[in-house]
Amino acid sequence: MEVLVALAIFGLLMIGLTQGLKLGRSAWDKQSQLVSIRDQLDSTDRALRYLVSQVDPAGEGDNEAFVGGTDHVEFRTYLPSAVALPTRRVNARLFLDDKHRLMLRWTMALHEQRVKPVASTDTELLSGVEKLEISYWHGSGDNGAAGWSKEWAADGVPTLVKIHLVFPKGDPRQWPDIITAPTIDQAAG
User: Fold this and answer.
1) What pLDDT band is residue 30 in, cutting at 50, 70 and 90?
2) What does the alpha-carbon distance between residue 153 and residue 85 come to, in Å, rounded to a whole number?
3) Sign of CA dihedral 109, 112, 113, 115
């Protein structure tokens, strides 16, 4: 009889330990998932801030250096110094593709003319993005008023660029707007 009681108690202890391990593993997996999501958003944030802050305004009157709409932007910028290419200066396009991926399409901006066009490279920055909204701050318009605009086709670069990422309903990812000041960042060095 004592052996049966001991076995019953031992069985209850094993069930309790198993449930505790399941709970611990579930909490570990959830925390790992949250850290992974945070890392993806953080690395995308840092990449976008760097690329926009390194905008190459090119020459005066060159309105192709920075052109953008509410769902895309094209600009000349510099890739990080870790990239091993003949030049870090690139023509970049930030957009959302049909698969709801935030994409960066870039082509090396070489100074010499090429007989054959330089191939572009598509880089996925973030997946599962419902909508991309970009706004541009102009210091003063024709009427002297400053404000946000949904398009940019003026000479030079905007004072501020705001990138807002919208995620699908039920998606746990939350991230504040990415606001970068290309002209101030370049002046600061």
Assistant:
1) confident
2) 29
3) negative
Q: Which of 174, 184, 155, 141 is nearest to 52 (CA)?
A: 184
**Starting from the edge strand earliest in sequence, which strands make up the sheet with 178-180, in order?**
147-149, 131-138, 160-166, 178-180
Alpha helices per DSSP H over the chain:
2-53, 182-188
Fill in the DSSP letter of residue 173.
-
Tell me, what DSSP letter sits at residue 62? -
Between CA 44 and CA 33 the distance in angstroms is 17
Burial of 175 (0-12, 13-18, 19+ CB in 10 A): middle
Cβ neighbours, 10 Å, residue 96: 19
Coil/strand/helix, residue 143? coil
SS3 category, 120:
coil
pLDDT at residue 109 greater than cutoff 70: yes
Q: Is the dihedral of CA 105, 110, 111, 117 positive or negative?
A: negative
